[in-house]
Every structure is written in C-alpha cells, then in structure tokens.
Design a protein that fits this description.
The chain has 224 residues and is an alpha+beta fold. It has a domain of 138 residues: NADH Oxidase, CATH 3.40.109.10. 42% of the residues lie in helices and 12% in strands. The chain has a four-stranded antiparallel sheet. The protein binds flavin mononucleotide (FMN). Flavin mononucleotide binds next to loops. The site of flavin mononucleotide (FMN) has 11 residues, from loops.
Amino acid sequence: MSNNPVGVKEAIEQRRAARAFREDPIPEETLREIFRLGLRAPSGFNLQPWRFVVVRDADNKAKLRQCAFDQRQVTEAPVVLICCGDRRVKESDYIESVIELGKQLDAVNDRYADYMRSMIPQLFAGGPSFGSLEVWTNRHTMLAVAHLAIAAKSLGVDSCPMEGFVTDQVKAAFQIPEEVDVCCLLPLGYAAEPYKAYGGRFDIEQVFYGESFGDRFQLSLTPR
Ligand SMILES: Cc1cc2nc3c(=O)[nH]c(=O)nc-3n(C[C@H](O)[C@H](O)[C@H](O)COP(=O)(O)O)c2cc1C
C-alpha cells in the first residue's frame, strides 16, 4: 500500500481495510484535511447528524479495544474515530442552526427556511424512508465515514471501518448520550503488515439491476 497522495480514482482502488498499523503519527494538517473533506458528505436537509469522538490517548485506545473484541487496529492506529449519529438534530434549535449556516452562504432564503421548519419535523414524525431513527443516523454517518476513508487514502492515510464493537460498552466508556448512535469505529494511520488478501468484488451485472429488482442489467460498453 502506498502512502503517497493520490487522486480519487486511485484512492478508491487502493483503499483497503488495514488490520495492522505502524506507530507513525498522522500530521495535524493531514488530519485536518481528512476531516474537512469527510465533512463534505451529503445529508438530508443538510442536517449533518454525524459526530466523531477522536481517540488518540493510549489509555483511551486500550479502553476502546476492550469494547471492540480486542481488535489490534484500535490500539495500533494513532487515531481512532468513534463515528456517531446524533438523533437530536431534529430539535428546532438545531434546525435553526442549519438554516443560519445556509443563510450565511446565500443557499437558504426565507421561503426555503420556512419549508425546512415545516418539513423536517414531518420527516421525523413519519419516517417514510426509514424504519427507525437509528437507521437514519447510520445512513448519514456511514456516508461521512466513506468520505473520510477515501479522503484519508488520497492523502496516504489508511483506515479500517469497524462494526466489531459492543455499542453499550462504547457508549458507557466514552460518555456518549442516549440519543446518539455509535455507527462504527474508524482507526486511521499508516498500514503495516499483515495485509489481508483482497477479497474481490462481485461484477456490476451481479449487483446492479435494470429498472426492477432482480432484472438483468448490462452496460453496452466493453469492460476495460
Ligand atoms: C461497516 C463495516 C464494518 C466492518 N467491521 C470490521 C471489523 O470490525 N473489523 C475488521 O477487521 N474489519 C471490518 N470491516 C472491514 C471489512 O472486513 C472489509 O472492508 C472487507 O473485508 C473488504 O475488504 P477491503 O475493505 O480491504 O476491500 C468492516 C467494514 C465495514 C464496511
């Protein structure tokens, strides 16, 4: 795995889930850039429900590893993000802060602000596209996690998304409020041996369907 900066196509192709990390720290400016780019992820009504606990202290990483089935990445990586989704973003004060942010950039006018004030509570009252609020927070936070992982790789930094942890233990150990969901852990750093062999991906035709679920889909271009 290379640690040189690369473009987005190479970052996607080269990103791997790193199971072991070297001790080398991530420079602060690199970390800032990864975080800045990660936060460009899209979200419904721009509500940005993702929240991240940045764990760098050795004792805290050891504590987190105990909540994560003793997975070595958690203590080896110089930085581990506890990636959370905050269900409280449906509260009116928070909605006002999103409106204000958009107004400062001339992206939200008074009419659209009123639309947001009426539609966002309706979205959460009905939840037409999600079964539970946890589904909603996960949907958004994991998009940000994907952005973070690709941004990190483009800056030469490896990562490992992790669902191998006990939610209640992580919440208790890191003072995560009841209304906040832990969506995944994301160790960040520079990968070391051993690398896991690339497990491959299914072909486009196996996972893309045409018009109706299960129907054959084929692109007319010849694969390169
Ligand atoms: C949501 C999610 C949870 C994962 N949890 C773990 C984990 O707990 N431990 C681990 O070592 N890898 C974990 N992985 C990494 C996957 O095993 C890995 O992405 C997959 O095998 C494909 O390998 P690649 O990412 O290197 O291409 C997780 C990946 C995702 C997306």
